[in-house]
């Protein structure tokens, strides 16, 4: 049985990662997954939130927004409402938290790296594509700090990507487009490292509950998808990607932070 | 190896569900899990959000807040800041979404049932205790509508409870108290029905990533915990609990909504 | 002629003051007057508002809020509206101002003591009960500072309590419940010390104006009520209460501040 | 013993009531008490708040603000802060509540009369001068409705004015200027009708508590001040003032509303 | 004397207008002027602001925002601040007002056309490029309505474009890039029609005042620039552009509205 | 052909500049142009915005607001809406920007001069009258600093005034009153110095576009109006005005800043 866009159940949409998309940010990526298009930027600020002042440690944080023209019905701006809507807050907390999970913040000095994910066209999976693209922008920004001589190595322990999976018409599926997502009875976002380890899992039975067995199937599918995404990230980053996971003296020390 | 409070790894804290805690709301529960204490109320309003007007269908929504005195360091009020903080928004979205998952909204008329969860004392697990206690308050409010003759039966498909699990010092643990939660490398909240089905799963590798095998162990632990919680809910609701999952003519129709 | 709940015109409702109600705050009280129930906490913060920095003097401030389930019709959260409503602001200004009236702020160091009054069930008289209960929580917090050796004595000059009085159906009444308050033509809140001195008086002719003679009668009634309340506070505080009004060397010096 | 500005303890400052100060509002008054200057306007809007829709009854509400240049240190605008500060909210609630106390709202139709009090120069007593001047603007607006044939009479039961009294250096005083107010140990605002009846009393022991005897003295002083103010209002309103308190058929019926 | 980027004083930067840039909006344009890149979308909503309800007339309104990564130093989001900053408000009022100037709003039915201009890369002239690009998106949206049979013709009277001019180092210049704009002593934005008529002029002596003669020179330069821009718009719109300015029966009637 | 109020096309309304209107601000002016009445104050604060800290330079900023009673239909307060409306923001940015254009900020020390313009009665031209009156208040505040010995001279390079011009019924007109402004097809505000130089020009074809020739005519008219206004400013300031444009040693150096 074929899907709306003729993909098989375990097939990702076309992925395109365009680095250096903008001229100002230290890292900037146009992340495309099918019709979903997101500008992910990473910008370095020489300042940390109050709770980190004087600690010598840095911070990575995310912000997420959808352009008014990104959706079928015009998306009202958060600024016009005077507050960031709950869904966006949830997503930006997720972006920041998961990226921090693979960065050794103690190695970047008292700096904040802002990961901004602005959806210019939405067709499902915007939060996961934000993380996958945001990771690449983050690596570029850290590499910029490295090339400036500000840090001694790129303090990232692992590659990180994210993908959505779900159950639609009782069928498990990888990388849901908007129409599938809308119909899905179960919707799940899974963030993994290149070691096939989980960093975050969020699954919701939107219309139905689901069994542990279904969860296991979805996990396997997500693992498959994340492997492909990480391969794409590696291809896109080229030699810079080779520096990831390699601290100057020891390995894996970032796990102890 | 014993835990901070001498529990074994798979042991819940003391649970106490006090129904009819307040006189005004249609449903009100004081939910206690160890030192975590939450007032959960369910109030019926004869009005629905704009997107439901004229549909004949109702709504269940959640709000969550912590009293200033509920935490070690005084919690600043959202109202004083002029906005609901991200974490609270995330939790109230979770409460509403998971409870809606077991209610047949088409059977409650154009009404909103507000589930308010106000933490008066926090010691870890406040979001899961809010859901477990909120479910009981919701049943009481629906029973009130039923007794008023406003609805024909209690349109809830399944019992629902939630519990936290996590990995602390490389050990999987059930029902983390604040001190454990603070040290946990993996933190997970799992919402299940009395059919052992999942309604929501949210897991984060706060400091470490985690393997699928670890996830499976955590799931088993959560299943065990939720079974106990649902038994407590049943005990507390008594005869009213017997009405759950039983629509007047057919069964399972709430799955089709 | 008897009142709604069979009290005589000069009779208070049942009063219950439960100290140490919560585990985190330095002072915490469950204050009950009939069906009105309020959690009053006092928390010490090692920081003062900008206008006091460097003065060596401290601050006492109040916040007041009603839980959504505290009223017959669900009370919308201030946080959801994005601002504290006028009535709450008025009340929290009153709580802070009247408690500051009996504390020698110059003796508590550059600290803020936050008095939070959260109404969990409302049946009239919430602002006066907040003050009566908040006073006890404040004493406990100051006693905690004293026991920690942070201050040399409990710098409170007098006991302080508050009560509502009013005119309902042309009859003066003490301690109005919600139903009486709703019908009252004159509504007054009076805050007094154990020396029968006034700290604050606020009276409104909601539907009628009132004469000076009626005001005098209401004052006498309030005096009677406050005496009972202060006796209850003393009973509840026990030996700690004996320390009030006694500075180490002289008496009454708090009047000169 | 003379006061700062050589007045005797029971003497008001110079009072000036300039009617028709602005061309747009139905009623507009420049209210001056010494150096305190307030523009009080009354504007009629053919709309009521939601809770009055369909009742046939109208509403009177007050707003209060201080111009940035009205005080010694520039007053930050509420609009710049994004919210009305607590003190202003308290005052505008007081203005609205006390004026409503002498209007028969059932006789003005479904209209809102907005009383705006904008302090252009502050020297103490701004809230009481707002009420005294706002009352005159309100009468003019009601008279405008009457002349338009929209209402059958001016549905005001009594004249209403307000004055501050206080205790400064142990001396009771009438009509405190800013410097006196700043030093006062007791500060009180009293709103009265031309029948010497109280509509609102608000007294605070800012630095000291006070006895009932002192309260009685302050009341007598306020009564004296309000009599003078009401005489000024009558003088200013001329023939229009004669219409107050006279409903077409009966008298005093506004007391029964 | 050459400019920073070797242009002559009266030379525009490279212009690129990419229509149909996004799939959801009825009109969408990627507007590029040198390194300035803006996504301009036009979306049709079947609703008008309250003041137009029942008039049969429609509305065109603009919103403007800069992505955080569009500038050298990260641009803080308006949403994070809780309000649209003054500069953005000024620009979005300008976009809406100038576009409304060439649309016959009475011919589009009770619809709002939202023109959203989101700057993804900024290098000066973002407000004028927003108008030039927004005009093209607006035409596409109106053409979409026309093709749907919802309107009888494209009710636009004239082409409209905008350009910045200024005085830098005492030299008049066309189309300032950021570095020139930063140094400019006079900065002016001019919006014109294809009839060489002015729709809006905004000029500021940022550091110097300027003479009428200098103003005349700037106007001539802007006229030259706008002619080129309008030629580009025509080229980009092709046949659709031929429909502009042609109402079915008469000409120029849009002037009378 | 005569205008609504019988003025000729190039005639200003009656101008009245009342200095020292209020007692607290260092500069305060009641600015009247016909029925338009604005209180303009200038207040000195010993503090600068963050971006100027440590630079030794000062700041001049403007705020603008309309009193609720200043307009025919009551103007809702910005504070009640929780934000400054777009129009007001635009105007206050204009006031600050244009006044800064004639002040040598490096000569006033690290101080902010707040120019507050509060419209008490509106009849067109409020923004230009705010600038004309605000300029006089600013001079008075600078003179106060000069008299205090805080600055060595009054660091203002030129007189500055502003006037509106427009096209109404195809006729160019000077100083539009509200009724004319409402009907105008072109509306322009022009700010000039006493050297007949432009500081700001803002013109909008509200209903029609306009030609360069029309623009030139409007400019000539504005020049004429501003000359009269500056003469009035000079008359009002008397000897203080003679100090303007005269730095102690050289002339015109403020142009180089």
Description:
The structure is a homohexamer of 257-residue chains. Chain A is α+β, with helices and mostly antiparallel strands and 257 residues long. The first copy, chain A, has a single domain (15-248), classed as GHMP Kinase, N-terminal domain (Ribosomal Protein S5, domain 2, 2-Layer Sandwich). Helices cover 30% and strands 27% of the residues of chain A. Chain A has helices spanning 78-81, 86-100, 126-147, 178-183, 212-237, 239-242; strands at residues 15-19, 27-33, 36-45, 59-66, 112-121, 160-168, 171-174, 186-193, 198-205. In chain A, the strands form two sheets. A five-stranded mixed beta sheet of chain A has the order 1-2-3-5-4. In chain A, 57% of the residues are buried. Chains in contact: A-B, A-E, B-C, C-D, D-F, E-F. The A-E interface holds A 22-25, 28, 35, 39, 41, 43, 45, 63, 65, 67-72, 74, 77-80, 82-84, 114, 116, 118, 120-122 and E 22-25, 28, 35, 39, 41, 43, 45, 63, 65, 67-72, 74, 77-80, 82-84, 114, 116, 118, 120-122.
